[in-house]
Amino acid sequence: MLSLQDKQRIDLCLGTGLLAVGRPLGRLAGVLLRRDHSAAPKGDIAVLKMLGAGSLAIAMPALLGIRKAHPRLRMTLVTTPAIRPFAEVMDIFDRMLAIDDAAPGRLFSSSCKALFSCRKTDTVVDLEVFSRMTMVFAMMTLARNRIGAGAESGPWRRHASTHLVGAGRSAEVYLFYDRIARLLGAPPASPEACREHLLARLPLERRRPAGRRIAIGPGCSELCEERRLSPSQWSMVLKERSGAPAEIHLLGSRRDRPLAEAIVTACPPRPNLRWFNHCGALSVTGSLGLLAGMDEYWGVDSALLHFARLLRVPCLSFWGPSEPRVFLRPIAGLREETRYRKLPCSPCVHTSGSPPCSGRNLCMQGLFEDIGTPGKLI
């Protein structure tokens, strides 16, 4: 089983080597072939997104805009099994090619199959701002246009991409996605259009139970797990926020279930609270269908948060290794609170190979510290 660190090392070492060879060849091919690199798509579009379902949700206005602007062109998503269920809920792509990144052999064979399936693609859109191997994949498709991130993402993308779109570590990521859509002649869809698109595809509850209902998403992807809150910290949140009777619904994957159980245990029993642990018991579609009917959503920077925002569920979110300004697209009419305390080392999620705090998530702990009042939520 490949860990996230293993995948990052493969991306850095193998990706850098392959780009060192491929970039001069790509530049030479561009000179010899003299292809028309006008941005308007003339055939199939392939989108590369390998890590972070939350990023896919943030990119939904851009992706839905491309889908509506080019309804006759086939759109393909090249992704991983972890991201695929979220993409299926979005129902934007005509097909999905999953690259199995669980083991080196499976990674190689599934990548080759996906590459062969993309051999007739006209335009490749690489949404992985910090990956080298996705750019190698895009080059090897021999697509007429290969669109990737420019600026701070690294000079190694020059001549590997035909079009570079500005993106930076501290820039709003949703603007990067929107620029790509506009480059392809597609105005990004509005947040309201995204909400309607999702609601039409989710199994919504026919009868909404009475009373206040809160969804909590305690988990996140394996990238920078330091952004999670501890069970005791969630207990503080409940103490400060849940005055009226309420149902608490814990949402997440099977991997999040032990954390969810620990949260229930850490919170003292109260007659006005009823707990429901759905982690691992509901599919992504089922989880989002339940989420759509909630009165509030509480969570950290994760896919559930970004889908909750698209569904216009009032949100309370906690930030530390990542910065809310970078990831939260303004949505008119959405009621939300963000908790973020800027530290010298924050954000660190895309700026360092390992957390400067060695995993102690000081930025998240700082959300629960107030001078003279330990443990107070600020």
Element string (H = helix, E = strand): HEHHEHEHEHEEHHEHEHEHEHEHEH
Low-confidence sequence ranges: 371-378
CATH class category name of the largest domain:
Alpha Beta
Number of strands: 12
Based on CA atoms alone, the radius of gyration comes out at 21 Å
What is the helix tally? 14
Helix content: 25-40%
Note the quaternary state here: single chain
Distance between the termini: 40 Å
Instruction: Output the structural class.
Output: alpha/beta
Can you describe what's shown?
The C terminus is likely disordered. The protein has 2 domains: 186 residues, Glycogen Phosphorylase B (Rossmann fold), CATH 3.40.50.2000; 157 residues, Rossmann fold. Helices cover 37% and strands 15% of the residues. The radius of gyration is 21 Å and the shape is globular. With 378 residues, it is α/β, with parallel strands linked by helices. The protein has 14 helices and 12 strands. The strands form 2 sheets. It has a 6-stranded parallel beta sheet with strand order 3-2-1-4-5-6. The chain has a 6-stranded parallel beta sheet with strand order 9-8-7-10-11-12, sandwiched between helices.
Q: How are the secondary structure elements laid out?
A:
Layout lengths: L3 H30 L11 E4 L4 H6 L1 H10 L5 E5 L4 H7 L4 E4 L5 H14 L5 E4 L6 H8 L4 E5 L13 E3 L7 H11 L7 H9 L12 E6 L13 H11 L4 E5 L6 H10 L6 E5 L6 H8 L4 E5 L2 H8 L4 E5 L4 H4 L8 E5 L21 H4 L13
Helix pairs in contact: 1-6, 3-7, 9-10
Highlighted features:
Rossmann fold, 2 domains, 37% helix, 15% strand, 6-stranded parallel beta sheet, disordered C terminus, alpha/beta
